[in-house]
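Structure ticket #2291
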Amino acid sequence: MEAVYYPACRQRLKRIASKAGRISLLFLCSEEVGVEASVLIPKTTFTEAVDELTTIRDFIRFSVSCLRSTDVHVGHGSEDHFAEATALVMQSLSLQWSADAEILDAKLLRSEKQAIVELLDKRINERTPLGYLLNLAYFCGHPFYVDERVLIPRSPIAELIESRFDTWLDDEPQRILDLCTGSGCIAIALAHVFPDAIVDGADISLDALAVAAVNVEHHNMADNVNLLESDLFSKLPNQRYDLIVSNPPYVDAEDMADLPEEYQREPELALAAGVDGLDIVRKILAEAADYLTKDGLLVVEVGNSEWALAQNFPQVPFAWVEFKRGGSGVFVLTAEQCRQYQAAFREAL
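Resolution: structure written out below.
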């Protein structure tokens, strides 16, 4: 999966880790100080950090230790505690993740240290995802505003966008639809790589569209990206698209029940999709042919529901994308295939 909050920078993080590892561990476990079990890192530990630690490097090390010791889930785009800790500290100081390594030994003001530990407290003890704490996530190398009204961007579709769908598209698309647009990150990323295209971003959630509108304005994409309130295709104009991309809700009931606390902070409307995770995907498949141009392409992420989809439609030759950076569960169908199997898709509704 593409890293969220920052681009990957393994070598820099390793240098930070090797030097910061010499700094002693400050915090105590909750059992030692007699606090409630739900508090994973007590307030006294954060106070001690503010009193005793001095540099950016200190606080990156301290944050890594806290994250690792409490087993927080860092799957919103990365499974790397060092990367998450670096993002938390550097972004709280309004510094780029790629800042010169010499700045890591800069001393912090007490107010700056306090701001860092307050973020870390919420990240660990409240299990709030870092993207929501910072109101920031990166997708296709671009920054996006995010809050609890939308999912935190992490789709492997980013890799397809960055490659301009090079093995799938013969001609550059002129009209593109991002179905279930959420924060608008996919629609805007598509507009960046296909600057001559008109991109429609559709979502059923007005809250999500409000966030998407912030991002469209921030990226100066008002002339390229249209935002539409629609339950899938129901309110879309009479328009056919050369490319339809969708990261719809696809989490099945079993997985919804087992989601880490961090994922439970995200809007259920953007995640849950019935017993097998295919409630929304079936509707997309049933109607996509009516909205694709003759040589159009449909790209849909279904995540862990890939197996269920293959079992539901064994006769359909879904092309499953193989990603170089990790990730899975994204299929591609041509407009011709959508037409060929449309009757089967509709019968499954």
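Closing remark: The beta strands are 137-139, 142-144, 175-179, 198-203, 225-229, 241-246, 292-301, 319-320, 330-334.
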